[in-house]
Request: fold
Amino acid sequence: MKQLVVFGLAVLALGACERTADNDDGVVVELAQPVDYTAEEKAAFLAAMPAPFSAADLADGEKQFAKCRACHTITAEKMNLTGPHLYGVFGRKAGSEAGYTYSDAMTGHNVVWDFESLNTFVESPQTTVKGTKMAFAGIQDADQRRNLIAYLKIETTPPATPETAASERGSPSVQ
Reply:
């Protein structure tokens, strides 16, 4: 247990400083950088989101994510902690990401994560998925949930490749 706590603290420290870590062999490992969308790209993402998420406060969403950060990562390195990573969570079937051991309740939760399903789950995880391993009590405030979910959509959506950007004419994908 002590090693898990130390590992968790190391991960949190990495999020606040350089994006490198030493592995057990003393080799420096380069960690994935968060997606760094421009203000204009973030505004386009928001505008393309369904209401009420299109009116989200992304700064508050980032603040709300601090409640999740101890258990979840959101970068492209897809590192699982106590909970699964959330990179690419929109459009993913609940309980399906390879490399994480979900509860039977979550693997049996027959939804694909989108704005509404995440909104319902984040409000009250244990009520929505009885038997989930997620011990988080939920976020009762609708504005805080909206802000968090919009922030997650932007931060966990892989950047468009040149091929998809050309086919979508540069508009962000919203599911």
